[in-house]
Amino acid sequence: MSTETLFAERLKSARETKKLSQAELAKSAGLQPSHVSHFETGRRAPSSANLRALADALGVTTDFLLGRQSRQGMAGPRLDQVVTYAERLSESDLDVLAAFAETLAERRKASDRKNR
């Protein structure tokens, strides 16, 4: 599979996972809706600035969109902010943060199962 095809598929998949329309993603990324459509169909490739904007809007890494990373990890300004705060914490505070994050993830998982 070509890089362009993989990018197009991953962009569309990430957008659908976030339950966004092409227009909503375009607005969030500061692009025209036609650009998102062209990227998803493989008619055009994004510039590096547009790639970054799309990744940030979707909360994924550019490496994921480009196929260099296999799973859809978190990325973007929110994660950067959390990491910045976490870097200032003591080991015991990091343990509390990890336990809290685990609790939130389990709560989300239970909510997702309930909503199926």
Q: Domains counted in the coordinates: how many?
A: 2
Alpha-carbon distance between the two ends: 33 Å
Instruction: Tell me the helix content.
Output: over 70%
Query: What name goes with the CATH superfamily of the largest domain?
Result: lambda repressor-like DNA-binding domains
What is the SS-derived class? mainly alpha
- CATH C-level label of the largest domain: Mainly Alpha
- Look at the structure and give the mean pLDDT: 89
- Continuous helix count: 7
CATH architecture of the largest domain: Orthogonal Bundle
What gross morphology would you assign? globular
The name of the CATH topology of the largest domain is 434 Repressor (Amino-terminal Domain)
Brief account:
This protein is an all-alpha fold and 116 residues long. It has helices at residues 3-17, 22-29, 33-41, 48-58, 62-66, 77-86, 91-114.
Description:
The chain has seven helices and no strands. By secondary structure, it is mostly helical. The chain folds into two domains: 3-66, Orthogonal Bundle (434 Repressor (Amino-terminal Domain)); 77-114. The longest helix has 24 residues, at 91-114. It is globular, with a radius of gyration of 17 Å. The mean pLDDT is 89.
Attribute tags:
0% strand, 434 Repressor (Amino-terminal Domain), 2 domains, 116 residues, 71% helix, mainly alpha, 7 helices
Write the layout of secondary structure elements.
Blueprint: H1 3-17, H2 22-29, H3 33-41, H4 48-58, H5 62-66, H6 77-86, H7 91-114
